[in-house]
Design goal:
Strand order of the largest sheet: 2-3-1-4
Number of domains: 1
CATH architecture: 2-Layer Sandwich
CATH class: Alpha Beta
Strand content: 15-25%
Largest sheet: 4 strands, antiparallel
Structural class: alpha+beta
Number of strands: 4
Shape: globular
Number of helices: 3
C-alpha cells in the first residue's frame, strides 16, 4: 500500500476530516496532522483513486464536491520537523511497502 498526504485547500478542514474518518476505517491507516490541516493515509490505490474514495473528485460534471478542494500526494521520502509519533507512523508504514 502507498502512503499519501491529503491536505484541504479550503479554510474549513472539517469536510475532509469527516471524509477521511468515514472512508478510511482503520485508525492504523490514517494519521491526523497537527493543527487539523491534513492527513497521512495508507491506501491501496492511486492518488486519483483515493481522491474519489474520499469524495474530493468523482462527482458528475457540474456537481460540487461535498468535501471541497484538496491535494493528495504520494509520499516516497520525507524530511522536516514534527512530532515523534508522526515520524514513527511514516517510518513503519513505509517499511511495510
Amino acid at each position: 500500500m502507498a502512503i499519501y498526504i491529503a491536505v484541504p485547500l479550503t479554510n474549513d478542514s472539517t469536510p475532509l476530516n469527516e471524509a477521511v474518518e468515514r472512508n478510511i476505517a482503520a485508525d492504523a491507516d490514517r494519521y491526523k496532522l497537527q493543527s487539523d490541516r491534513g492527513w497521512l493515509i495508507k491506501f491501496a490505490g492511486t492518488s486519483a483513486e483515493l481522491s474519489q474514495h474520499l469524495g474530493v473528485t468523482g462527482q458528475p460534471p457540474g456537481t460540487p464536491s461535498p468535501v471541497g478542494s484538496a491535494i493528495i500526494v504520494p509520499v516516497s521520502a520525507y524530511y522536516g520537523r514534527g512530532p515523534t509519533d508522526m515520524w514513527e507512523w511514516l517510518k513503519t508504514r513505509l517499511e511495510q511497502q
